[in-house]
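Read as amino acids, tokens; as here:

___
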Amino acid sequence: MKTTDLDELSVAKVKVGDSVKITVSAFDNKVLLGKVVAIALRGEKLPTGDIAYTVTIALDEQDPDLRWGMSVKVEFQK
């Protein structure tokens, strides 16, 4: 799983190995857990002019209900 919209202020607070809590919008009360495994060294310029960084997350367990393109809320834990 990858994020594509983490701004420079937020990405500065994230480290490889940080725990992640993921809430899937399509499912009530479904929470997935994972860890940050990579952080892009280079940001991508968005159409708005902002720079966003990709963070790669490995889920602790795969969920068979999860589909590509589903919206999720990612909370980085310390």
Q: What stands out?
A: The mean pLDDT is 91. The chain is about 5% helix and 50% strand. The chain has one domain: 2-77.
